[in-house]
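ok new one. same drill as before - structure tokens go in, u give me an amino acid for every spot. 380 of them this time. try not to just spam alanines like last time pls lmao
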């Protein structure tokens, strides 16, 4: 049984838990607000994050390594001190860049050679380097270094990729144990999550889930989804794979997703989520509500004096109208982006609170049905 994760209750396959870390306890299911380079895009401060109910923030190993540099951040006391955030941080390993920078990298057993997307200089990153960078950042949770194969890749390619990712995971575990024992390590209690891969091949996913479970890690992620497959394929993979991951450890669905994706993921036993949608879409004038996504750039909102969503207590909805935010975007004022990002992150964080309450009260099945119906029924 995990000493860090307590399973409080279940409702079907939906899990309600607590995850204890050196930087505080996370109530799950949880959405991690994405601050790739140690900041939420949209002029949102860490004080703002605390105010809108953020439990845990996510930053990216590769991006912080190439700018400003993990060694500099270590000298400044680690990422928590650097960005003035006293709650948990999860750092992605840089492995997703093996997928997203496909035209700028070369994969070998030792690791991956990148060409920086900023200035083109050569970077090598393998399991050991990823762990060293994340140790320098001193995040709460470090993700294992992996390759995310394309969802439609040939079976033989996926088999070879997953086997290599497993070997990398073993190396990550060994290196993290070494790093956590060093005298100058900032966070000697850094945790490691392994990543399940296998594209859309159920049997590869299941076999990999069994193997990584044997390593007794702090948590497990399902990676390589939301990268081109359909929602139905994603749900099928979760249905087949999650039962083979430990119920007494957190399960993290990487890079997912929409509010409906999250509701469906929780229904299938997922604890952790992250996605850039609420911030990215907010910066482009799109707001999430319980009745779906609305585009405040549309002319019909020019005279709409309602808040973004009736009953919402976010900073934007407490003080400003749709008409005013519409005006800010038309005038290209940064405040418009900031208010929309705050609203969307508040919506996601408090959706997770609604989900936790529904599981606690053993009514998650009804919550899922009611939320889906309302989300697909626009109110404007």
């Amino acid at each position: 049984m995990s000493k860090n994760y307590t399973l409080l209750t279940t409702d079907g396959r939906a899990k309600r838990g607590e995850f204890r870390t050196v930087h505080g306890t996370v109530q799950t299911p949880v959405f991690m607000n994405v601050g790739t380079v140690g900041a939420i895009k949209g002029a949102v401060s860490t004080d703002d994050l605390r105010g809108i109910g953020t439990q845990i923030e996510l930053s990216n190993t590769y991006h912080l390594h190439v700018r400003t540099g993990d060694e500099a951040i270590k000298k400044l006391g680690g990422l928590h001190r650097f960005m003035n955030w006293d709650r948990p941080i999860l750092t992605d390993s840089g492995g997703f860049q093996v997928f997203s920078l496909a035209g700028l990298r070369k994969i070998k057993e030792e690791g991956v050679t990148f060409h920086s997307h900023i200035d083109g200089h050569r970077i090598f990153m393998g399991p050991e380097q990823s762990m060293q960078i994340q140790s320098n950042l001193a995040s709460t949770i470090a993700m294992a270094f992996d390759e995310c194969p394309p969802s439609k890749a040939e079976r033989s390619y996926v088999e070879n990729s997953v086997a290599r990712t497993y070997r990398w995971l073993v190396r990550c575990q060994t290196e993290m144990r070494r790093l956590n024992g060093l005298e100058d390590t900032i966070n000697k209690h850094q945790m490691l999550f392994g990543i399940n891969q296998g594209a859309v091949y159920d049997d590869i996913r299941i076999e990999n889930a069994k193997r990584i479970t044997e390593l007794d890690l702090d948590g497990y992620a399902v990676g390589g989804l939301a990268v081109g497959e359909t929602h139905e394929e994603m749900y099928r993979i979760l249905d087949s794979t999650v039962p083979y991951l430990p119920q007494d450890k957190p399960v993290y669905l990487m890079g997912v997703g929409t509010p409906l994706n999250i509701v469906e993921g929780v229904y299938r036993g997922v604890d952790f989520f992250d996605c850039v949608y609420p911030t990215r879409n907010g910066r482009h004038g799109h707001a999430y509500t319980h009745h779906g996504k609305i585009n405040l750039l549309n002319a019909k909102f020019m005279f709409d004096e309602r808040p973004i969503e009736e009953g919402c207590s976010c900073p934007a909805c407490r003080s400003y109208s749709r008409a005013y935010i519409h005006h800010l975007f038309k005038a290209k004022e940064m405040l418009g982006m900031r208010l929309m990002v705050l609203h969307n992150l508040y919506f996601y964080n408090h959706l997770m609170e609604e989900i936790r309450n529904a599981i606690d009260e053993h009514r998650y099945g009804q919550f899922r049905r009611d939320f889906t119906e309302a989300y697909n029924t626009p109110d404007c």
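Residues 334-360 form the longest helix (27 residues). and btw The chain has a mean pLDDT of 94.
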